[in-house]
Amino acid sequence: MRLFDTHCHLMDGQFGDDLDSVIARARAEGVDRMVIPAVDLATARAAIHIAEAHEGVYAAVGIHPESAASARIEDYDEMERLAGHEKVVAIGEIGLDYYWDSAPRSVQQEVMERQIELAKRVGLPIIVHNRESTEDVIALLAKTQVGTSVGGVMHCFNEREEALRRCLELGMYISFAGPVTFKKSDDLRALAAKVPSDRLLIETDSPYLSPHPFRGKRNEPARVKLVADTVAYARGESVQACAEQTRENAHRLFWKVKP
After folding, report:
1. In the CATH scheme, what is the code of domain 3-253?
2. Distance in Å from the first CA to the final CA of the chain
3. pLDDT-derived band of residue 192, with 50, 70 and 90 as boundaries?
4. Where do the structural domains in the chain lie, given as residue ranges?
5. What value does the mean pLDDT take over residues 73-91?
6. Where does a divalent metal cation 1 bind (predicted)?
7. With contact defined as beta carbons under 8 Å apart, do 201 and 253 qualify?
């Protein structure tokens, strides 16, 4: 069984001392494809550096909403240059975050829209962060029609059924992470069962949101198998089938990733 962790922040400082061991443990669990999303230009360069050093590991470049306040016009030119790297497969992690509100909401929206337009210019999909900002995120996705052009994924989906329906209508993929495994996440598991098979993805969001029974501990890509187990059970299918389908979907979305 081969697994694809579509979202793991391996450039995070929590992996500073044992990154090679983390990747080795992932491979031992069958996780042979990973995408590292950036949160700003510095982490974009770090993600690319890691991807260059490890087979099957890829990078995304983007400005996270928590970094939006410091975004400069010249940053978009640099991001576009980095997007041409052979191991950069997406623009992300981008989006809106109204929980932390680290930047004015209008600024977050401008930064997200600029990056969507950049993604369309370079022909790469987007990785979308959404926290307590669903209506505005969906409005921007609808305005730009990115889901039906270069495509994109709603990372760590944790919304209601109406939001799921609208994101699917806009052409987006839906990715589940550790929260789908939590004991009180029955509603989220029910939604995982409703995602069309060709739009489903899995991830860890390492080092965050470690799945049950490791909740509260540092997460890592090896644990994406626990997400696959839970999603497969919710959908009434084998974990092998879930792994194969989500892998196929990830390769379709992140078309630069080698099969």
Report:
1. 3.20.20.140
2. 14
3. very high
4. 3-253
5. 98
6. 7, 9, 93, 205
7. yes
Among candidate residues 234, 123, 227, the one with its CA nearest the CA of residue 179: 227
Q: What pLDDT is recorded for position 48?
A: 98
Q: Cα dist. 17→13, 20, 21, 108, 120 in Å?
A: 8, 9, 9, 33, 37
Binding residues: 7, 9, 93, 129, 155, 205
Could you list the residues known to form a binding site for a divalent metal cation, using ranges: 7, 9, 93, 129, 155, 205
pLDDT band at 73 (very low <50, low <70, confident <90, very high): very high
Distance CA 157, CA 91 (A): 18
- The enclosing H or E element of 81 equals helix 73-83
Cα distance between residue 22 and residue 242, in whole Å: 23
Give the number of residues written for the chain: 259
pLDDT at residue 203 in the model: 98
